[in-house]
Amino acid sequence: MFLRFLPGIVLAAAMVTPAFAQTSDVKVGHELYAEHCSGCHLASGAGGVHFSHAVSSDLRAPGLEDTYHNKSALLVRAILYARDEDGDRLDSPMPAWKGVLSEKQALDIIAYLQTLRG
Ligand code: HEC
C-alpha cells in the first residue's frame, strides 16, 4: 500500500528541494543557523533587529539571492568574511565567520536559507 504512494512522495520531495540542496545539507544548515545566526536574524530569517549602527538583514529568499545575484560564492563571502555584494564590510555586529564555520558549513546554511521564503 505504502509503495503505491512512494513515487509520488519522492517526486514531491524532489520538487520542493532546491537544486543547491543536492550537494549541501539543509538539515545541517538549519542546525548551524539556529546555533549561530537566529539570535540576530530571528528563527524565521526575517531579521529587522536593531543594533546601534545596523539592522539585521532579512535572509529569506528570494530577496537575499537577488541582492547577491544568485551567486553562492558571493553569499559564502558575506558569511565567512562579512562582505556585502560589492565587497564592502557589512556593518557591525555582523561577524565574519571564517575560523568558526567552514565553506561547506556556509553552503549548508545557504541551502537552508533558500528554504525560507519572505
Ligand atoms: C551579532 C548579530 C549577528 C549574528 C550573530 C549574525 N548576523 Fe548576519 N547580520 C547582522 C547585521 C546587523 C547585518 C546587517 C549588516 C549591514 O547592514 O551592513 C547582517 C547581515 C548579514 C548578511 C548580509 C545580508 C544582505 O542583505 O546583504 C548575511 C548574508 C548574513 N548577515 C548572514 C548571517 C549568517 C549566515 C549568520 C550565522 C552564521 C549571521 N549572519 C549571524 C547581524 C548578525
Give a short overview.
It contains 6 helices and no strands. It is an all-alpha fold and 118 residues long.
What does this protein look like?
There is one protein chain. By secondary structure, the protein is an all-alpha fold. The protein has one domain (2-113): Cytochrome Bc1 Complex, Chain D, domain 2 (Orthogonal Bundle), CATH 1.10.760. 47% of the residues lie in helices and 0% in strands. The chain is built from 6 helices and no strands. The protein has helices at residues 2-16, 26-36, 38-41, 63-67, 72-81, 103-113. Helix 2 (26-36) packs across helix 6 (103-113) and helix 5 (72-81) crosses helix 6. The longest helix has 15 residues, at 2-16. The protein is globular, with a radius of gyration of 16 Å. The mean pLDDT is 89. Heme C binds at residues 36-37, 39-41, 51, 54, 56-57, 59, 64, 67, 75, 78-79, 84, 90-91, 93-95, 97, 109.
Number of helices: 6
Strand content: under 5%
The main sheet comes to:
none
Task: Using the coordinates shown, work out and report the CATH topology.
Answer: Cytochrome Bc1 Complex, Chain D, domain 2
Q: What is the architecture at the second tier of CATH?
A: Orthogonal Bundle
Radius of gyration: 16 Å
CATH class: Mainly Alpha
Number of domains: 1
Task: Give the full name of the CATH homologous superfamily.
Answer: Cytochrome c-like domain
- Measured between the Cα atoms of the first and last residue, the distance is 37 Å
Q: Low-confidence parts lasting 5 or more residues at pLDDT below 50? A: none
What would you call the shape?
globular
Query: Helix content range of the residues, please?
Result: 40-55%
Q: Tell how many strands the DSSP assignment holds.
A: 0
**H and E string:** HHHHHH
Mean pLDDT metric: 89
Ligands bound to this protein structure: heme C
Supply the helix-strand structural class. Answer: mainly alpha
